[in-house]
Amino acid sequence: ERNWRRDPRTSVLIHDPSDPDRFVEVRGTVSMTTDGGPELINRLSLTYYGEPFTGDDGTDNVRVVARVTPTRVVVR
Hints:
Strand 1 (9-16) and strand 2 form a beta hairpin. The protein has helices at residues 2-6, 37-49; strands at residues 9-16, 19-33, 65-75. A three-stranded antiparallel β-sheet has the order 1-2-3, with no helix packed on it. With 76 residues, the chain is α+β, with helices and mostly antiparallel strands. The longest helix is centred in the middle third of the chain and has 13 residues, at 37-49.
């Protein structure tokens, strides 16, 4: 998060585990917000673990939502 504030350029690379020659690369810029952070982590926890997220209870952690605006997409 600190690096994205300094320089919002980013790249996301996703490999196909069944074929190492297949991948998707997304290059772009990141925008960040704290709006919806607690709701997002809770929704992900419910999806993957079937229970609400409680890892931040009793802390002052702030959840950041990062979104990538693509400028280039490569599929191979």
